[in-house]
Structure formats: C-alpha cells, structure tokens
Write a structure and sequence with these properties.
The complex is a heterodimer. By secondary structure, chain A is of the alpha+beta class. In chain A, 22% of the residues lie in helices and 35% in strands. The radius of gyration of chain A is 20 Å and the shape is globular. In chain B, 21% of the residues lie in helices and 33% in strands. The longest helix of chain B has 11 residues. The chains are: A alpha+beta, B alpha+beta. Chains A and B meet through loops of A and strand 4 of B.
Chain lengths: 358, 129
C-alpha cells in the first residue's frame, strides 16, 4: 500500500500523473514536465513535499547533540531562524542523509530530512540521543508545500495575510514562525521561494488557495530537472552511505577545520580522496543518465545524475570522475552502444531561467 | 487514449500502417508517449539496414527515461523521419502523425500477425491494472 500525502486527492483533481516514488503515491507531472520546469524558472510553481519529514529536536542540550550528529558546524547558527545544510554521517564516513537544520531557540532545532531515508534517520537520531536530555519528534502532523520561482514570495504573501511583514526582509536560508505557519526561504530549484510547513488539516485548503492565485502545481519530474540544473545533490543518486562526501561535491558542508568531533570525522580524515563531482554538458545528441560510464584521460568515472535540461536545451549531468580533470576538458560517455562527447563544466548549470554555462 | 482502427500494433507499443506501395510505416503509440512523457531525443535506424522482427532498432528518450523501439516485422529500412529527430516533441503532439521509419517487409503477410486495435486496447487496459 503506497503512502499518501494530505494532498493526494488534490493532485488527482488537478490531473496529475501519479507514480510510486519510494513508497509514496506522488505526482510526476500534471501534463508536461518541461512546461512545469519553465513555469518555475519563469514565474511560480508549487510542490507537494509532504513526503519529506520534519523532525523537531528539543531540550537543553540540542546544540551539543547536533555538534556530534552532523558534519557541518551548527555553531554557525547563532540567529533564530537561520538554516544550515548538512550531511549526517555514519561512523565509516558514509552519508546517512543530507538535511536542513533550522535553529529556532537554544532548546529547539528543526530538521527536515528526505522521504526515503526518514525512518532510518529518526532511528539513528534516537539512538544517538539516548541518555541525553532532549526529545526527537517526527512531525507527521505537519504538511510541507514548496512555492518556488521568481514570483513565489509575492504569491505566498497573497495567500497568507500578514506573512509579508514578517518575511520580506528575511534573507535566503532563513525561516520564521508565523501563526500556525513555519515559513522558510529555502528550496530545491535554484529559484527564490518559500517552503511552508503547516498543519496537515490546512494543507489542502492552502494548496487550492495558492492554485487560485495562479500558482501551478509542479510534479516530481520537473523537481528533478530543476534541482539538477541548480547543481543540487540528490540523496541515493549523487551520494549515499557507500560514497565519500568529500568526493561528492559536499566538502563545503563538512567541517574538518574546527576541533569539534562528529560522527564519521575520523573515518573521513583517514580516507584518500581520488574522485570529484563535476558537471557535464553533452556535446553530441542524446541524453545522459545515471550510471553511464565516463572516460577521462585519468581513468573512468560515472554519471550520478543525468537528464535533459529544459533551460539549456541539451543534456546535462553530475558525474564522479578522477581528480585532475578541470572544467573545459572533454570526456567520453558510454551511452548505449556509442561513445558520446561531453564537456566538463562547473555547476550549477542554470539559475533564474538562464544558462550559467559559457 | 486514441487507438486508430486502421493501424496494427505490437505488444511493445509500436503502431504499424500498411502503405499502398507495400511498405509499412512505424511509430510509437499515443499510450507509449503518454507513459514516457516529454520527448527530447529520437534516434532512427539507418536507411538500408535490414531488421529482424523484434530487433531493437531505434531509441526514443523522454526527459524521464530512454526506451527502445523494436522492429514490428522483419524488413529493410527504406526511410527514416528526420523531422522528428529535429523535433521529438511532435510525438507528444500526435503520435500517429509523427512516424519514425518505413520498412519494406521481408514478407508482406507478416503484418497480419500483429494486433488489431481491439487487441491492443485490451493490452493497454490490462497493463493499467
């Protein structure tokens, strides 16, 4: 039996094509994935992200707990509402999940984890929390809707009276609690926008209110092309428990400089780094896909995520390849029975409707 | 989903039209394009290539996934539609107008072994359950 979000009926009413997404019955598109992609880059769209899980960690020692639990340094979080992207590692240095941590007060941090890893994450957090004066609470009573695109904030302000006053001056990667809403200026598309957490009972009404204001529903298909153009990693594809985060383009989130010890740190320090995550743009015709083999002059690598980019109108990919291959280099990718030419580039590939690739 | 009565069909979702000159025209069905979503890449077989029935001979790729296209019957490729290679989205717009390639059948009677519209309709409905 597939799990359903509180918006399941709304998706069907809006003509969504539903798919099994990691055990959840989710909309892949509402007609055209490409149109939905452009809708978000050029205007505004909304995503049902209720399958992701909000976890509240509360108690006197939350900061100390998180210092050990995650690889990024929560001591960067000093202002209420500030968010931090981080990996949660296992003792071997593999990635249990990537997540966002919102600092609200010294005894309340809010964490948002991926859908597919949610149960595993909570079990791990509870295990690490044993004997500590804190609570780890999964919040399935909260729904989450992401509104993304250049007009996203304005639409949310129309939908939630009073929200503009509390969130207009708020910088990206910050959140504010307002009435029954938790409004975060975060997202997964490379566009401006909000992720709104709200009581499950209000989710459907909010979805329809946003729709009535012209916010189009966007499926998981476009969510993937948008995030890949924005150069954002996807758990389970670009990294997982078997990969070294320092070889996945996540070094910027791993705090190895401070004295702070965290789970997985010793393992990371003992590992060699041989690979890097780069962007690829396909020069020949075709479509790059995950797991295709990349040949470079320093040896072979692998595509971790690949797709057709609606903004660039050509195929793009993230690939894990040997060190020493710099942007501008040409590589070959095995696509079915052919070797196709691709160029190594820095990512992100696109933002705000425009290519970032020269 | 439209399933024209004057065409023949395969279990792998190709449609086949018999032409007056004895050749057959091949494309993918409206049902197939609906499953795949927005088309972004088409690779047709080379003209002159001889195909066995059921042989992988072309590729259609949507944003979501790549899918092989199979020769519905044995024959020689006598034409490939360059227009849909340039504009793969034509398959989404009208799958039965956006033909992919034409075959000169090795045996013209082979077309009769393919599914008719009613049989294909039954197949599509059974796959939906």
């Amino acid at each position: 039996m597939l799990k359903q979000t509180p918006l399941n009926a709304a998706h069907r009413d809006m003509g969504a094509k539903m798919v099994d997404f990691g055990g959840w019955d989710m909309p892949v598109n509402y007609g055209s994935q490409i149109e939905e992609h452009h809708q978000v880059r050029n205007d505004v769209g909304m995503f049902d992200v209720c399958h992701m899980l909000v976890v509240d960690v509360k108690g006197g020692d939350v900061r100390g707990f998180l210092r050990g639990l995650v690889a990024n340094n929560v001591d960067k979080l000093t202002v209420s509402g500030k968010a931090l992207y981080s990996c949660m590692l296992n003792p071997e240095g593999g990635v249990i999940d990537d997540l966002i941590i919102y600092f609200m007060t010294e005894d309340w941090f809010r964490i948002v984890v991926n859908a597919g890893t949610a149960d595993k994450d909570v079990a791990w957090m509870l295990k690490q929390a044993e004997g500590r004066a804190l609570t780890v609470t999964p919040r399935r009573d909260l729904a989450m809707i992401a509104v993304q695109g250049p007009n996203a904030r304005a639409k949310v302000w129309e939908a939630i009276p009073g929200a503009q006053a509390v969130s207009e001056a708020m910088k990206p990667f910050n959140a504010v609690e307002f009435q029954q809403y938790f409004i975060a200026r975060t997202g997964y598309t490379g566009e401006d926008g909000f992720e709104i957490m709200l009581p499950v009972a209000e989710a459907e009404a909010m979805w329809h209110r946003l729709a009535s204001l012209g916010v189009k529903p966007i499926g998981l298909g476009a969510r993937d092309t948008l995030r890949l153009e924005a150069g954002m990693n996807l758990y389970g594809q670009d990294m997982d428990e078997a990969t070294n985060p320092l070889e996945c383009g996540l070094a910027w989130t791993i705090d190895l400089k401070s004295e702070r010890d965290f789970i997985g740190k010793a393992a990371l320090l003992s590992r060699d780094i041989n690979l890097q995550l780069v962007g690829l743009v396909l020069l020949d015709k075709g479509v790059l896909r995950a797991h295709q083999v990349v040949q470079t002059k320093h040896g072979a690598g692998e595509i971790t995520s690949g797709t057709f980019s609606p903004t660039l109108q050509q195929s793009i990919a993230l690939a894990r390849i040997p060190l020493g291959i710099a942007p501008g280099a040409e590589v070959e990718v095995a696509v079915r029975d052919k070797q196709l030419r691709a160029k190594v580039v820095s990512y992100p590939f696109a933002r705000t409707g425009h290519s970032l690739i020269s | 989903m439209s399933i024209p009565a004057d065409l023949k069909y395969t279990a792998s979702h190709e449609w086949v039209k018999t032409n007056a000159d004895g050749t057959v025209t091949v494309g993918i069905t409206a049902h197939a394009q609906d499953l795949l979503g927005d088309m972004v890449f088409v690779e047709n077989p080379a003209v002159g290539r001889t195909l066995a029935a059921g042989e992988e001979c072309a590729v259609v790729e949507s944003v979501k996934a790549a899918s092989d296209v199979y020769a519905p019957i044995a024959g020689e490729v006598v034409a490939a539609n360059a227009d849909i290679e340039a504009a793969p989205e034509a398959i989404n717009q009208d799958a039965y107008a956006a033909w992919m390639f034409k075959l000169k059948p090795a045996n013209s009677a082979d077309v009769n072994s393919l599914m008719d519209a009613a049989a294909y309709q039954a197949l599509v409905e059974s796959e939906a359950h």
